[in-house]
Amino acid sequence: MSFSRPYTKPMRARDMPVPDIPPRLYRGVDFSACNDTPMTMPKSPRAKNRAVLNLARMQPCLLQSPVCQPEPETTVACHGAGVANGKGLGYKTGDQNTVWGCWACNDFTDAYNGATAEEKAAVFAAGHVRQVEAWAQIAADPMARPWKRNAAKWALEQPKGTP
Ligand SMILES: [Zn+2]
Hints:
Order of helices and strands: HEHEHHH
Strand content: under 5%
Radius of gyration: 21 Å
Largest sheet: 2 strands, antiparallel
Oligomer: single chain
Bound molecules: zinc ion
Number of strands: 2
Shape: extended
Strand order of the largest sheet: 1-2
Number of helices: 5
């Protein structure tokens, strides 16, 4: 047996060295607000805030539509695209006009065919009332992480019903 020509197996992806990713960009979560500095407003035709969307992670469903499947692991910040389209609005609304919704409610307020535009709008509006309450709780919670408090405050400070 000779070791003169050792065979080197190709490196598998999971054996590759972990790249040195700046912590603030880890998994797309913006931790840059952790030091309580004011968040800057992006120059955008619609209000965007990635941290507001990230707040939805593992939260309960607040849309609570007739088809709700309350599975927090599926919760995302729902923009109610179908609701906006039902009103003749051809755009995705700002991130302050989002509601934490499970996958089923997200579909209900978007592509779901079993409800009228009015029913979708009513579910979204009721959900947004709950959402504002949830953001208010986070914004007022001294134990909440600063990036979460900042995101909730931002959402509460945006004008409602604007793109
Ligand atoms: Zn739901």
